[in-house]
């Protein structure tokens, strides 16, 4: 999938969070969004996901079949973020199989294989509400990375992870993103975006065009 960010801006009341963001992002240019806490990088990611609307500018989505409307782009997106909530009353098995009703997993993985890849095979019958924060983060990432999506959006993907979890992420991410477009929000933690070849620093768009 190809994304074109054109003069993208978002404001809250009369104050601009950022303005004038221009970029082209595709599968050949895995991209990291940099910015300190509160800078607006998560807001930019939400605009890219079409879950929020820009105050000005637009995001144009396209693939080999042509333009994709913002109303339908969610069908192509896998996303993991700290503010996303999992259905905690589900067991892991129920959630993975529910996900399969809407989209297949890559490589024709089964729900059980996804659980093994996320080191969660012993938790298939457990409700999500009893998972630790690290287990929930691995589950969010597994759903985003291993479901067939053209665009993957990850907001601070190693948050709530210990060293073992970070190593798991690093071992999975390069395989999972081959041939797909990926955007990472990061506070400059190299382990989150070590494979990215393009950077967008949101701090440079605080007063209109790139500073």
Describe it for me?
With 211 residues, this protein is α/β, with parallel strands linked by helices. The chain has one domain (2-205): P-loop containing nucleotide triphosphate hydrolases (Rossmann fold), CATH 3.40.50. 27% of the residues lie in helices and 27% in strands. The protein contains 6 helices and 9 strands. The protein has helices at residues 41-48, 92-100, 111-117, 133-146, 163-176, 190-193, and strands spanning 2-12, 15-25, 31-34, 56-63, 66-68, 77-80, 151-155, 181-186, 198-201. The strands form 2 sheets. The protein has a 5-stranded parallel sheet, with helices on both faces. A 4-stranded antiparallel sheet has the order 2-1-4-5, with helices on one face. A hairpin with a 2-residue loop joins strand 4 and strand 5. Helix 2 (92-100) crosses helix 3 and helix 4 packs parallel to helix 5. The two termini are 28 Å apart.
Please supply descriptive tags for the structure shown above.
211 residues; alpha/beta; Rossmann fold; 4-stranded antiparallel β-sheet; 6 helices; 9 strands; 27% helix
Helix coverage percent? 25-40%
Ends apart, CA distance between termini: 28 Å
CATH architecture assignment name: 3-Layer(aba) Sandwich
Q: Give the count of helical stretches.
A: 6
Structural class: alpha/beta
Number of strands: 9
The first-level CATH class name:
Alpha Beta
Strand % is: 25-35%
CATH topology: Rossmann fold
What's the story with the biggest beta sheet? 5 strands, parallel
What does the average pLDDT come to? Answer: 92
Reading the helices and strands in chain order gives EEEHEEEHHHEHEHE
Q: Name the poorly predicted regions.
A: none
Radius of gyration using CA atoms only: 17 Å
